[in-house]
Specification:
Helix content is 35%, strand content 25%. It has 13 helices and 20 strands. Helix 1 runs parallel beside helix 8. The longest helix has 18 residues. The structure holds cytidine-5'-triphosphate. Cytidine-5'-triphosphate binds next to helix 11 and strand 17.
C-alpha cells in the first residue's frame, strides 16, 4: 500500500494512557508509505518508550526540546516546515490548552506554533475533563482557527469512568488522515466565495448590535472547499486563519455588501453562510452615547438593510451558483422554501436555530438541503465539518450542471 507515499507526518504524542495505541498508528502510517516523525512530550515517554516508536517509525524520536538545547531552534522549525500534516494523538487537555492560548514551552507545542500545515488533534481524557467548559472553549477556539478535531468516543475509560473521552479508534484516526491526503480535487479550477459570521451594526463608536453566529459553519465550508482544490475567498466578520485561503475582513453589512460586489463577479459558487443583520441603526451617534440622568429610556431607530443574497442572486449569470442558509426557529421547511424562491437561489440550507445543541454557535448542525424543484434532502445531527462535506458535494453537482 502506498496511499501515503512521500507524505511527511509529524506525530505528537502527549502524556495519556492511550499513548501506547500510537504504536499501531505508526505501523499503519509507515505501511502506507508515510515518513513519520514522532515528537513525544516528557510525560508521554512514561506511557510508551521512545525506543518502541523509533523502531516502528524508523526515525529518531524527538523528545522534550530541552534535551538537546543546541538542536531546539532547528528542530521545531524544521519539523514544522517539513510536515505535510501534524497529528496529535492522544492530545491531553494540557496540550489543547497550550495551543489554544499560544503557549510554546516544549518541542511539540513550539512545532505546532510554527506549523503552516494542517494540524489534526485527537483528544483523550477523563469525561469530566472533556466536558469541562474551559477545555471545550479551547477546542472551539482552535476549530474556528482551522484546527481539525478527531473527537473521542464514548466508552470505558482507564480511570474507571464511563463516558466521552476515550481516544478514537486508531483505524478511524488512520482513515481521517488518509482521507485528508487522498481526496480528489473536483473543484480545482473553481472559485468559491463564502461569507462567514455575524455582521455588526454600530450604535456609536463602541457599541453595536449583532447576533450569536460564531462563524463555525462558514469556516468548515471554507476548509472543505479548500480541501477539494477550490480557489477560496472568505468574507468574514470573525477572525479566521485558514491556510491557502484569501481572507477579507468586514464588520458591517454594508462592508460585506462592498466585499461581495468586489469578489462575486469572478466566483463560480457563492455560499452565503453569514448571519447578516436585517436592520442597521438609523440614528448612529458619532460620539459615545452618554447615559442621561433625566432619561430612563433610549430609543434606537432601525432601518432595513439590503438583502445581500437577493441582490447578488439577481445579478448572477447562468454559470454561477448561489447557495443561501435559512436560520429558522419555526416552520423550518416552509420558511426556508419561501426564502429559496424569493431570493432565487440554486439551493438553500435550512437549519433550526431555536435549539441549543445545533445551529448557531454549536459544533453541530442538522440541516435540510432544499432545491428549487422542491426536492428536500435531510441530514440528521452531525458535526459542522460533516455538514460542510455534504454541502460541498451538492455544490459540486450544481456547478457541474451549469
Ligand atoms: N441574508 C442576506 N442579507 C440580509 C439578510 C440575510 O444576504 N440582509 C442572507 C443570509 O446570509 C442567508 C439568507 O439570506 O444566507 C437567509 O438569512 P436568514 O437570516 O435566514 O433570513 P432573512 O432573509 O434575514 O429573513 P428573516 O430574518 O425574516 O428570517
Amino acid at each position: 500500500m502506498t496511499l501515503l507515499k512521500g507524505k511527511n507526518i509529524v506525530l505528537g504524542i502527549t502524556g495519556c494512557i492511550a499513548a501506547y495505541k500510537t504504536a499501531e498508528l505508526i505501523r499503519l502510517l509507515v505501511k502506507s508509505g508515510a515518513n513519520v516523525e514522532v515528537i513525544m512530550t516528557e510525560s508521554a515517554t512514561r506511557f510508551i518508550t521512545p525506543l518502541t516508536l523509533s523502531t516502528l517509525s524508523q526515525n529518531k524520536v524527538y523528545i522534550d526540546m530541552f534535551e538537546e538545547p543546541e538542536n531546539y531552534s532547528i528542530d521545531h522549525i524544521s519539523l514544522a516546515d517539513k510536515a505535510d500534516i501534524i497529528i496529535v494523538v492522544p492530545a491531553t487537555a494540557n496540550i489543547i490548552g497550550k495551543v489554544a492560548n499560544g503557549i510554546a514551552d516544549d518541542l511539540l507545542s513550539s512545532t505546532i506554533m510554527a506549523a503552516r500545515s494542517p494540524v489534526f488533534i485527537a483528544p483523550a481524557m477523563n469525561t469530566n475533563m472533556w466536558n469541562n467548559s474551559i477545555v471545550q472553549e479551547n477546542i472551539n477556539k482552535l476549530r474556528v482557527k482551522g484546527y481539525y478535531f478527531i473527537n473521542p468516543e464514548s466508552g470505558d475509560l482507564a480511570c474507571g469512568y464511563k463516558g466521552d473521552g476515550r481516544l478514537r479508534n486508531i483505524n478511524d484516526i488512520f482513515a481521517e488522515v488518509s482521507d485528508y491526503f487522498n481526496i480528489e480535487t473536483p473543484l480545482k479550477s473553481k472559485k468559491i466565495l463564502i461569507t462567514i459570521g455575524p455582521t455588526r451594526e454600530y450604535i456609536d463608536p463602541v457599541r453595536f448590535i449583532t447576533n450569536k453566529s460564531s462563524g463555525k459553519m462558514g469556516v468548515a465550508i471554507a476548509e472543505e472547499a479548500n480541501r477539494l482544490g477550490a480557489d477560496v475567498t472568505v468574507i468574514t466578520s470573525v477572525p479566521v486563519s485558514l491556510e491557502g485561503i484569501r481572507i477579507e475582513m468586514v464588520e458591517t453589512t454594508s462592508q460585506m455588501q462592498e466585499a461581495l460586489k468586489k469578489h462575486f463577479c469572478s466566483a463560480d459558487i457563492l455560499i452565503m453562510a453569514a448571519a447578516v443583520a436585517d436592520y442597521t441603526v438609523k440614528n448612529y451617534s458619532d460620539s459615545k452615547i452618554k447615559k442621561s440622568s433625566s432619561q430612563s429610556e433610549l430609543t434606537l431607530n432601525l432601518a432595513k438593510t439590503p438583502d445581500l443574497l437577493e441582490q447578488i442572486a439577481g445579478i448572477k449569470t447562468g454559470n454561477q451558483i448561489v447557495i443561501g442558509f435559512a436560520a429558522e426557529t419555526n416552520d423550518l421547511i416552509a420558511n426556508a422554501k419561501h426564502k429559496l424562491e424569493s431570493k432565487k437561489l440554486d439551493m438553500i440550507v435550512a437549519n433550526d436555530v431555536s435549539r441549543n445543541d445545533i445551529g448557531m454557535n454549536s459544533d453541530y448542525n442538522e440541516v435540510s438541503f432544499i432545491y428549487p424543484d422542491s426536492k428536500i434532502e435531510q441530514l440528521s445531527k452531525t458535526t459542522k465539518q460533516k455538514v460542510a462535506v455534504e454541502l460541498m458535494k451538492r455544490a459540486i453537482e450544481l456547478v457541474n450542471k451549469t
